[in-house]
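The material for today's practical consists of a large collection of protein records. There is nothing in a record beyond a sequence line and a structure line. Backbone structure tokens are a discrete shorthand for how the chain folds in space. Nothing more is needed to start thinking about how sequence determines fold. As an example, a complete record with its sequence and its structure tokens follows.
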Amino acid sequence: MLPLRQQVRIATVLVCLGLIVTAWILLSQARTAALNAAEVTTRNLVGMLTQHTERTFDSVDMLLRIVARELGPRPEDPIRKSELAAKVAQLAQDLPHIMSVRLLDPDNATPLFEFFRTSPTGRSADPEALAIHASNHYLGLQIGHPYYDETGRAWVVGVSRRVSGQEGVPGLVVQALLNLEYLQSFYGSIDMGHDASISVIREDGIMIARRPFNPADIGRDVSKALWPSIGDRNRGNYHITALTDGITRIYGFQRLDRTPLVITAGLSEASILAEWRQEATRAMGIAGMAALVLMILGEALARLVGHREKAERDLIHAANHDSLTGLSNRAAFQERLDAAVANSDLPLCVLLLDLDEFKAINDTLGHDAGDSLLCAAAVRLTRIVPNRGFVARLGGDEFAIVVPDALEVGRITARSILASLRQPFPYQGQTVMTAASIGIAVFPEHGRNASDLLKNADIAMYAAKEGGRGRYAVFEPAMRTEILQRIELHEDVKAGIEEDLFVPFYQPQISLRSGEISGFEALARWRHPVKGLLGPAAFGSAFENHDLAIAMGRKLFRHIMSDVKDWVASGLAFTRVAINAAAAELDHPDYASWVLNELMTSQIPPHYIEIEVTEGVLFGKTFDRVQENLLRLHGAGVRISLDDFGTGYASLTHLKRFPISALKIDRSFVHSLDSNGIDGSIVTAVADLARALKVEVIAEGVEQEYQAEFLKKAGCTHAQGYFFAKPMASSRVPHFIESHAGTSGDFRIAGRA
């Protein structure tokens, strides 16, 4: 038997060896956990970068398709070139990364159409892309070889698409030059730590963009290192030493769905394991001490493991959650939704919503109020969504929700959300009001992956907004076409406003008592360059766009001021011109000031102008601002009339609060006077009400003599319609006024024009 001293020594050695082995095992596990967490982080980061890059190239492709559609069939048409150049220039205002657009013959690179943001770039076309299009009639999106453009002083890459020609003929190629510094600046703004990298690589291995930026890397072929690492996978991780800078990194990668590119993001192994190495050195030093420090060593190791686990949890949480609300972020939501649809054939609903008037709250109360509103809204959403569902904040005021059930449950959830978000939000002693617009898409009817479901839910949300906000809409395939048509209409209307194609036409208002002209109503008309003269039915939906409504209203108002000034200067006998005011105009805090300033500039007395307001505008959500504008206008001498009276929801209480000088009976009541006794009673009642309120009453849509006779007997004071005259251009108004001067008091003699 060995002496006790030797036994103690052996035991001490064994204990020390056991501690060292245990420490090494725990440290190895911590190292593996750190690397696994880095893989999760890089995958989520690549997902975010993929969305940004996909949107960037989608915007370029959208412009290419517009050029191909508009000019491809007729590249020689100078008029279409001019119109397209203006349209491309307008779209390019929102696409700062596009430097130029060309329509080319792929055989000789001859430009048939060109647009440059500033000055023409040095190279006329990307020969590599043209060769591909010419050789195999490739119809898809083609990414060229990046190069440094000396003229534009920027790194650029050609993005092209072939315009389909006749059978056996390559057709033309439309190509845009994308400023790669747009991508570089975005990637450079992301805080990823020391020695991190981001790369955008073509499917054949050519480097398009990289962070950190090195000119030698752009255009480099990295296929030998990249393809063996990722194989035929669409998304995942790999671990290699980079050829570009020799740094070993853990990379996440993802192939783009619609663009032949691969995005990679890498965190250096040295940065990931820096803390781990420090802790490992300390732990192994402690493990090498004698058995007397056994408890200290155990505590240090426990502390090391605890720190590492906490770091892992914090890293994973930060990579998957929104820092403000604590909800899942976009990347985590998409990953979870992908998993949900991949593992189930049962229906589920995706709800996409954003808060109405959120920008106004931010602008008026500040970003602290906006952040508080987002956090409170997140709490309410979490309480409403069923336990099996989940909620995420995608960014800004946009939230996404998954309800793993049929459409009816999705509808119920949407109605509950709308009701909850309509309730006031307290903030620093104030009450903040908002609502939401919700779009719903259902798996599998509306999409079998997260991307399609979110896209279709977004279209449905847009439809909900167009339908009046504060509501929900379920996706329908027709919505996509309707939205594209509405966007195209808005673009055409915007161009029409800029080209001064919207003009006022004037319809006379006749006194039923004297037969004299009591005034005119100004009605918008569009002198469309192709379709001719169009009425509001062709462009009225554009007024739902706040900016277009204000721009068109102001343009028409100035036309009307010019016409009125000419008529007054000519000594024409007329009383006033009624002008329809859109909701967006009356909701603007400076509307009254702007109108009065225009009157003063034009030197037109206010009594020549009457502002027409519909019931829906007058008694809508912005009641106080509308009332303030109208009271100020009335105080300055401008008349106010209530249009389409009887079709909305006006009440006598409301009427008392506004300075109304006239009520206008909607044409729907006048049209049915011959077949519906109820409408006649309504007209008589409105006339009696106007008489009691001591205001005038004007009937619209008079087309027959018997209608005019009925209205006169019922007590209506004025009327307008085709029976008297159709709306006319401003040049015809003087003749109309002069031809009616001196007629008798019989309104029939006022006649038709």
Notes: The longest strand covers residues 517-528.
